[in-house]
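Thread: "does anyone have the structure for this chain?"

Original post by V.I.:
We have the sequence but no experimental structure in hand. Need at least a predicted one for the grant figures.
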Amino acid sequence: MIIRESEVVKRLVEKGLIIVSGLAIGCDTIAYKVCLETGGKTIVILPSQINNIYPAKNRELAEEIVNKGGLLLSKYYKDPSSKSEAINRFIQRDRLQAMFANQ
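Reply from O.Q.:
Generated one for you, tokens below.
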């Protein structure tokens, strides 16, 4: 499965498309790593503030993305005040991803 996902990302990068996602563990991680390995451009839309990368496991990947010219975007400047707000941030992040992908 990882091979198939990697091939899809490689083809998108070859066509000059920008990889947009949310830095989640799994497909997002694979997409970003392949994108960076193949010299592609990428945008990360975070459900957290930029100085508190979520998921923390992908903090180094986020740093690599920035170091290689990628963009991290977040509209948040503080931690969520409730579980409901935290959940809503993921919904909003997904909406923003869809908006970017539609352009």
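V.I.: this helps a lot. The chain has one domain: 2-101.
O.Q.: and The mean pLDDT is 94.
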